[in-house]
Structures are given as C-alpha cells and as structure tokens.
UniProtKB/TrEMBL annotation:
Top-level taxonomy: Bacteria, Pseudomonadati, Pseudomonadota, Alphaproteobacteria, Rhodospirillales
Pfam families: CM_2 (PF01817)
Organism (species): Dongia sedimenti
Gene, per the UniProt record: pheA
Swiss-Prot/TrEMBL keywords: Coiled coil, Isomerase
Record's keyword annotation contains Isomerase: yes
Start and end residues of each stretch annotated as Disordered: 296-319
Name used for this protein in its record: chorismate mutase
Alphabetized Gene3D superfamilies for the sequence: Chorismate mutase
MF GO annotations: chorismate mutase activity
Regions of compositional bias (Low complexity) in chain numbering: 301-313
Keyword Chloroplast applies: no
C-alpha cells in the first residue's frame, strides 16, 4: 500500500511540476499576444467598439496554428480536445488585444449555432443571439458585433443571407471562417455547419476555399455556370442558385483555393457569363480540419436526449 501511495504521490508531483510549466508558458504567451496587439495598434488607429476587433483577429493565422499542432499531435489526448483548448486560449488572447463580440443566429428550434460559436470563440466572449438571420448580419453592419455566425448556405433557401453581402463596399462583411473547425463534439444539432462573416481582410493559408456570387440578367443553367467557371479557371466545390421574381439570377459558388476580392478570375467569370453579368468575391475560409487530419478519434457520440434534432433527422422522421 505504501508503495502504491508513494507512486501516486510521485506522479502527482510531476503533474504539479508540468502544470506550473504550462501555466508559466500560458502567461508568457499572453504577454506575447499583448505585444502583438500593440504592434497591430501602431499600424492603424484602433478604437474600443466591437467592430474594431476586426483589426486584431487573424483567422488564417489561427487556422495555421491549429493545423500545424494537430499535424504533430501524438498520444491519448483527443485531437478535438487540443482544438478546443487552443480555441479557448486564442480567443481569450484575442480579447486581451481588443474588443470582440460574436453575433449568432439562434432560432429557438436550432440552438446548435450557439454551441458552434462558443466552441470556437470560447466561454468568455460576449455572444449576442438573434433568431433572425438579417438581425445577426445587421449587428456586424451596425457595429454591435465583430463577427456573425450564420448557417452554411443550402439549396432551396427562400431568402439566402449571402445576397446581403454580395456588394462591393468596404464596410460590408464577408465570409472569414467556416465552423466547426474541428470535430463537432457534443454540439447540439450535430450536422450543423456555419460560416462566419466579418470585416477583417482574408489572408491565404495552404488550405483555402473562396466564395463568390455570380449575377446574370437571365437564368444560367448549372452546366453553363460550370463552363463559365472553367473558362475563368475557377474550380467549383458547390453552386447554389437563387432567383427572385423579376430579379437577376444569383448563384453562390464555393471554389477551391484562396479568392481575393480583386482576383482577375472574377472579371474573367463575368465576361464568360456574358453582358450585364457580375461576379463578386464574398470571402472564403481556411478549410476546417479534415477527417484525415483528425484521424485516430471517432466523433463524439450525440447525447441520448438531444433537444434539437438536426434538419436531416427531422425530415427522416417525417418520411
Ligand atoms: C496573437 C495574434 O492575434 C490573434 C491571436 C492569435 C493567437 O493567440 O495565436 C492568433 C491570431 C490573432 O487572431 C496574432 O495575430 O498573431
């Protein structure tokens, strides 16, 4: 028994020593983030309102940090827990640098977007919940929030939110991230995917996707759109169309790789689509960690009493 107690005590002394080192390093990292924030503030005047937080956040850098660490990860600590811990730390340090407020689409029937936002931006970030998509977007446009977490576009949307950001104006937000970045874990509404919009300029990582909106006077078939994209050297991942009675035909296209607002392929696409067409970049994101990158761990099990069935689950029930 004494030997068992001694072993335990010795291992716990080692854990205490590791904790002290981790804590020291965490405080050291905090100091570095403070200095990074000071350097950013020297480059441009930054105020204290939520929209000013866009001048501090660097989603590309955040994605690269996580991708690198997950790539070198070993041992029994699940990779998704690594992601969660780093997300909590990065978000907290971002808030040490400057203000950050997250608007989230939280209709009563779909609480999962709140979970996605909290997993990514941490437990301390102020979250403003909106049960209307337009209000969440307005929160960013009007400066109450730094970013907004919105549903991934899907076919058949009757009033797609991406139309609101398909405008070339500096203060209009664009897509800056896709969530969840790691495993959904115990997030409610397990299949949920979200896009984040904000005004911070996008930067490339080595794993990016771009989003654009193509607008034409007359409806364009899916295959004609593919041909035009091909002519403009843009590789589509998905295309979703929307047409309002009497309005132009609008299609949101996700493409492989990074897409800057002034990418010459946008002009080439508009030209390939014919007169009175336009193609506008609406942002993009660093691709979330893939199943291969997260290999070695099974997705967490959904709780037995999930209060929010996913849309897939509810349509399955009805069938
Ligand atoms: C520290 C920085 O600022 C923020 C915080 C980051 C971090 O804690 O690593 C990374 C990117 C930024 O969103 C930075 O830009 O490097």
């Amino acid at each position: 028994m004494a030997e068992h107690d001694d072993q335990l005590a010795a291992l716990r002394r080692e854990i205490d020593s590791v904790d002290t080192q981790l804590h020291d390093l965490l405080m050291q990292r905090t100091e570095l983030a403070v200095r990074v924030g000071e350097v950013k503030a020297k480059a441009q005047p930054i105020g204290r309102t939520p929209s000013e937080g866009a001048k501090f956040v660097r989603p590309a850098r955040e994605a690269k940090i996580l991708r690198r660490l997950i790539g070198r990860h070993k041992g029994k600590l699940p990779k998704s827990v690594m992601v969660r811990m780093w997300r909590e730390m990065i978000s907290a340090l971002l808030q040490v640098e400057g203000p950050f407020v997250v608007a989230v689409y939280t209709p009563p029937e779909e609480p999962g977007y709140w979970d996605i936002a909290r997993d990514h931006y941490g437990c301390r970030v102020p979250i403003l919940g909106f049960d209307r998509l337009n209000h969440a977007i307005s929160a960013v446009l009007e400066g109450q929030a730094t970013v907004a977490v919105l549903p991934m576009p899907h076919e058949g949307d009757r009033d797609p939110w991406w139309r609101r950001i398909a405008v070339k104006q500096p203060k209009v937000p664009h897509v800056i991230a896709r969530l969840p970045f790691g495993n959904p874990g115990n997030q409610r509404g397990r299949g949920l995917q979200a896009l984040v919009i904000g005004t911070t300029p996008n930067e490339p990582t080595d794993h990016d996707r771009g989003l654009l909106v193509a607008e034409t006077r007359e409806p364009v078939s899916r295959s004609a759109m593919r041909d035009a994209l091909n002519a403009a050297k843009l590789k589509p991942v998905f295309i979703q169309a929307f047409q309002e009675l009497g309005g132009p035909d609008q299609q949101v296209v996700e493409v492989e790789g990074f897409l800057a607002p002034d990418d010459p392929r946008l002009a080439a696409l508009a030209e390939a689509l014919g007169p009175n067409s336009r193609a506008i970049a609406i942002g993009g994101y660093a691709v979330p960690l893939t199943a291969e990158e997260l290999a070695g761990e099974k997705p967490a099990k959904a709780p037995a009493t999930d209060p929010a069935p996913t849309p897939e689950a509810s349509s399955g029930d009805a069938a």
